[in-house]
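To the wet lab folks,

You asked to see what we're planning to order before we commit. Fair enough. Below is the target structure as tokens, and below that is the sequence we designed to fit it. If anything looks off to you, flag it before the synthesis order goes out.
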């Protein structure tokens, strides 16, 4: 009988499928390696088994021990499956950009989940890397697989994923495209494919802002791909090209693949497919592009596949009059976002408000273009006035000590009715476009627009 002894035997041997609709107008065929058919729902099942096997063999993981790992979710699920089979306890550390579905999934396997802020550097004590290291030190019999440095990670793909792709394409593959998170998948597959044919081109699909494509690692919204440091499991000497892809293009492509190909794929899969189409457009019918689809879209139903979430970050535009129409009615290009850094003096923030004729300023770390996660709070003229009236020394303190909560956000494509609703409770809104802060929309801006253009607003929504 063809019956597996355990769920772990079901990992690997994943199918490949032609993306016939998405790439219909291209001469070069584009084929997807569908890794979400693994029992844990992602490509990360492969290194999860390999890393635990190696740890057991080396005596690093003892019966009843604790597995602790920072993860974007998928590696955690793979490790949780192994742990369930072998009797280990698990604790996973994730960032606060990870969707609730992934957190709930990890807990469903019996794992403890610790959530950390995403908008901090790796060396910060509150980062998910630092938190995981601290938990390992504090926990008896703890083992951290360390997917970012454990060379068993790329070795797992050299031993399984690479050979499968070579065999399934009968050695005809000319270009391989995959996202790079830890770098284990793309590096392991690359080494195998190049060992069979050195001419095979390896392309890394990378989020804008990630270090792999020249960014500083500042926050972006795509999960599970890109990095803010250089893991040793990423082997840049094997990578022939890196293509940066925006959050907007990643998410919209994921939704397009789902609706046109019937493949429910994750956000980072959209990153990879976008890059694959860029590559395929340059090629001929004699070439073959294989793109790795690392996971399913089931972990992104509250984000990438939620219209409200997408619109709130400025990725979708609704019907009727929207926030973008209000900004466009100013007659000139909307000025760049005016904001202050947390270390600036309150006195200087007040002067900046007067210079630009505004009553509120966002408080954010770093330079433009900002990520939404880098906005820390706001400075409000009225609150500063009230505080300075009681204590004039407030003006010479840092903004960090005097700031108010963050301004509510609204997507540039959301309705004017939604803007009115939010401005009923706040003096101004931070407008997001493509996931990034673009400008501030004040009550006066909306009132000026309404006075020029008779827009009908449903009283039931305000």
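Sequence we intend to order:
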């Amino acid at each position: 009988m063809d019956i597996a002894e355990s769920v772990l035997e079901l990992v690997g041997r994943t199918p490949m499928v032609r993306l016939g609709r998405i790439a219909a107008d291209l001469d070069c065929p584009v084929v997807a390696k569908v890794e979400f058919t693994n029992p844990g729902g992602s490509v990360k099942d492969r290194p999860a088994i390999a890393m635990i096997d190696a740890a057991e063999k080396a005596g690093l993981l003892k019966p009843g021990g604790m597995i602790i790992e920072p993860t974007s979710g998928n590696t955690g699920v793979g490790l949780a499956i192994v742990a369930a089979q072998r009797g280990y306890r698990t604790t996973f550390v994730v960032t606060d950009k990870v969707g609730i579905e992934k957190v709930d999934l990890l807990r469903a396997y019996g794992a403890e989940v610790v959530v950390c802020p995403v908008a901090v550097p790796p060396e910060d004590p509150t980062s998910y890397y630092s938190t995981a290291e601290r938990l390992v030190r504090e926990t008896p019999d703890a083992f951290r697989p360390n997917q970012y440095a454990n060379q068993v990670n790329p070795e797992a793909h050299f031993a399984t994923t690479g050979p499968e792709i070579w065999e399934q394409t009968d050695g005809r593959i000319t270009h391989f495209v995959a996202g790079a998170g830890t770098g284990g998948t793309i590096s392991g597959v690359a080494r195998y494919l190049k060992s069979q044919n050195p001419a095979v081109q390896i392309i890394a699909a990378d989020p804008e802002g990630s270090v792999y494509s020249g960014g500083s690692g500042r926050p972006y919204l795509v999960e599970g791909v890109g990095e803010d440091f250089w893991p040793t499991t990423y082997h840049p000497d094997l990578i022939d090209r890196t293509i940066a892809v925006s959050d907007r293009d990643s998410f919209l492509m994921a939704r397009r693949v789902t609706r046109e190909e019937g493949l429910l794929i994750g956000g980072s899969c959209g990153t990879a497919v976008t890059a694959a189409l860029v590559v395929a457009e340059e090629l001929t019918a004699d070439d073959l592009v294989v793109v790795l689809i690392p996971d399913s879209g089931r972990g992104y139903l509250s984000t990438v596949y939620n219209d409200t979430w997408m619109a709130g970050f400025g990725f979708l535009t609704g019907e009727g009059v929207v926030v973008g129409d209000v900004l466009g009615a100013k007659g000139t290009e909307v000025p760049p976002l005016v904001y202050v850094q947390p270390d600036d003096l309150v006195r200087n923030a007040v002067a900046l408000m007067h210079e630009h004729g505004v009553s509120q300023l966002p408080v954010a770390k770093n330079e433009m273009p900002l990520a939404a996660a880098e906005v820390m709070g706001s400075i409000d003229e009225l609150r500063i006035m009230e505080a300075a009236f009681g204590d004039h020394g407030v003006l010479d303190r840092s903004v960090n000590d005097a700031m108010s909560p963050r301004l509510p956000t609204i997507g540039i494509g959301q309705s004017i009715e939604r803007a009115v609703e939010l401005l009923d409770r706040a003096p101004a809104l931070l407008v997001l476009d493509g996931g990034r802060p673009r400008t501030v929309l004040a009550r006066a801006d909306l009132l000026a627009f309404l006075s020029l253009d008779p827009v009908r607003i449903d009283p039931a929504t305000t």
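Structural context that might help your review: The chain is about 35% helix and 15% strand. The first strand starts at residue 16 and ends at 18.

Thanks,
Computational group
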